[in-house]
């Protein structure tokens, strides 16, 4: 018999989550969605599809990927540090 205290489905915010944590997680989720959209079709071919010009010695398409990976890494560090307190 299933436990009635265990929620069913995807639980984004467990009961008792403070509003500040909810806002931080929603901001992180929005950053994650924008980053995911920038790294896949149809946005990647629009902005990251060319091999030239070079940015810091990297082809533009590789610099585009590295830049967005740096953004999501920074957002992950921010979320971790803000919820650790």
Identify the notable features of this structure and list them briefly:
mainly alpha; 85 residues; two-stranded antiparallel sheet; 3 helices; elongated; 5% strand; 2 strands
Please, could you describe this protein's structure?
The chain is mainly alpha-helical and 85 residues long. It is 60% helix and 5% strand. The protein contains 3 helices and 2 strands; from the N terminus they run ααββα. It has helices at 19-39, 43-48, 60-83, and strands at 54-55, 58-59. Strands 1-2 form a two-stranded antiparallel sheet. β1 and β2 form a beta hairpin. α1 (19-39) runs antiparallel to α3 (60-83). It is elongated. 2% of the residues are buried. The mean pLDDT is 83.
Number of H- or I-type helical stretches: 3
Number of strands: 2
Radius of gyration: 18 Å
Extract low-pLDDT stretches.
Answer: none
Helicity, as a percent range: 55-70%
Strand pairing plus helix content: what structural class?
mainly alpha
Quaternary assembly: single chain
Spatial gap, N to C terminus: 38 Å
Largest beta sheet: what is the strand line-up?
1-2
- Fraction of residues in β-strands: under 5%
Biggest β-sheet description? 2 strands, antiparallel
Overall morphology: elongated
Integer average pLDDT: 83
H and E string: HHEEH
Short characterization:
The chain has 85 residues and is mainly alpha-helical. It has three helices and two strands. It has helices spanning 19-39, 43-48, 60-83, and strands at residues 54-55, 58-59.
């Amino acid at each position: 018999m299933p436990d009635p205290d265990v929620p069913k489905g995807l639980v984004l915010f467990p009961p008792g989550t403070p509003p500040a944590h909810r806002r931080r997680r929603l901001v992180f989720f929005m950053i994650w969605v924008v980053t995911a959209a920038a790294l896949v079709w149809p946005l990647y071919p629009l902005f990251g599809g060319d091999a030239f010009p070079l940015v810091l010695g990297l082809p533009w398409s590789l610099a585009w990927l590295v830049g967005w990976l740096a953004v999501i890494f920074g957002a992950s560090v921010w979320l971790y540090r803000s919820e650790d307190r």
